[in-house]
Amino acid sequence: MADNSRRSFIGYAFGGFAAVGVAAALVPMKKAWDPVPSALSSGFTQVNLAVLEAGKLNILKWRGKPIFVLKKTPEMPSDEKRDVVVGDERFMVAIGLCTHLGCIPTYRESKLDFKCACHGGEFNASGVNTFGPPPRPLDIPPFSQNGNIIVLGEEGPEYHKMVAAIKGEAHGTLS
Ligand code: FES
Fold it and tell me: In order of start, what are the domains of the chain with their CATH numbers?
């Protein structure tokens, strides 16, 4: 808790902290990316995972990039390397830009995956490329985690552990 308070103070002190309240910060998006005004600053962005609805994609803007945050349903395969885990819940947190040429993939709720309209690339619910030209999974933004709270822009131990696991698999590619 003390660590969390320190982070908040630092964030406010530098004026780059977007304390993203649940409703204000995470707006369920179906087809279009509509940046959330309260998350437009370029510093840290705090996200409360506890309030997310399973299977509904949330998109927020962080440092000019769309960030996908998806609470997985039981039907979605878990990914031991890429999932953000809170208790029994699993979340995908990824930069929502196709790793082919940077288009924003569309979430297909009925298929539990993502489709990139530009050249047909597909990603599963973990953000892993499964079809088409994307050369690697969706990139993961730096984050720290304290229970249900993640802070985008901070590199916490969970992030470093995830990067190490992914690098071991992908031979140095951070994705
Ligand atoms: S930019 Fe997504 S498949 Fe080409």
Answer: 27-40+52-142+156-169 (2.102.10.10)
